[in-house]
Write a structure and sequence with these properties.
about 280 residues; alpha+beta; Diaminopimelate Epimerase, Chain A, domain 1; 2 domains; 4 helices
Length: about 280
């Protein structure tokens, strides 16, 4: 089976072109192929599939085999691959539509002189703030700086879904966060029936913040695109940042804009191909 290793700011996945290949058991394959010692090594597996309603369809599986609705860094790489391989009629336009578990998302491409995609801007859709739809087992119209007890400490969280659930915590000192301890505790907290992605954010200015992430099903990652969008929304809801911000992640920088025109979060960032290869059946 042919594959391509790609990453968005270090958030790396193995991509398989399902226009001409079939993956019979993506859950098992994701676990094996993602292993960083016995496999290719990645945060998960992403299938690029035909779609009846868009140029291509994206299916994303975490390293533990669980399927997620969306991946912000992943969708940029899907767009790059689809454009450069002319999948689904996408090789002749600087924009395309990608079917995801979140619905159909529109992306625009920044193409260099060699006709390679350097950056991708994704309309990530409107943030979901209703607790029942995130989901988080708390009452109210939204969860903004609500207290949660984790590992004998009380923290204030803001919850947002960008097609997958996120819990955002603001801090003045990222170095004090023991991510390997608090991350799993938050991911599997009883308040989150579908688990959760946990983010810790230090606001640097009204137009910039720095964040670290514990991603459900994958653990600590260098970047989380949907998470950065959720942090942007949380920073606006708590009056910490403007709607147009730069997010500094361990893997690099994303540009984010929670537009007041369409209420959608627009995310811009790079997509990088690492290598291609053949995985034995």
């Amino acid at each position: 089976m042919r594959f391509t290793k790609m990453h968005g700011l270090g958030n790396d996945y193995v991509y398989i072109n399902c226009f001409d290949q079939t993956v019979k058991d993506p859950v098992s394959l994701a676990k094996i192929i993602s292993d960083r010692h016995r496999g290719i090594g990645s945060d998960g597996l992403i299938l690029i599939c035909p779609s009846d309603t868009a140029n291509v369809r994206m299916r994303m599986f975490n390293a533990d085999g669980s399927e997620s609705q969306m991946c912000g860094n992943g969708i940029r790489c899907v767009a790059k691959y689809a454009y450069e391989h002319s999948l689904g009629g996408s090789g002749s336009s600087a924009s395309m539509r990608i079917q995801t578990g979140r619905g159909i998302l529109t992306v625009s491409l920044e193409v260099d002189k060699n006709n390679k995609v350097a950056k991708v801007c994704v309309n990530m859709g409107e943030p979901i703030l209703s607790p029942a739809r995130i989901p988080v087992l708390l009452d109210g119209e939204s969860i903004v700086e609500e207290a949660i007890d984790v590992l004998n400490q009380r923290m204030l969280m803001t919850c947002v879904s960008m097609g997958n659930p996120h819990a955002v915590f603001f801090t003045d000192d990222l170095s004090s966060i023991e991510l390997e301890k608090v991350g799993p505790a938050l991911e599997n907290h009883e308040l989150f029936p579908q688990r959760v992605n946990a983010h810790f954010v230090k606001v640097d200015s009204p137009s910039e913040f720095t964040m670290i992430t514990w991603e459900r099903g994958s653990g600590a990652t260098l970047a989380c695109g949907t998470g950065a969008c959720a942090c942007c929304v949380a920073a606006v809801l708590t009056s910490r940042c403007k709607r147009n911000v730069k997010a500094h992640l361990p893997g690099g920088v994303l540009e984010l804009n929670w537009s007041s025109d369409d209420n959608c979060v627009h995310m811009t960032g790079p997509a990088t191909e690492v290598f291609t290869g053949v995985w034995p059946d």
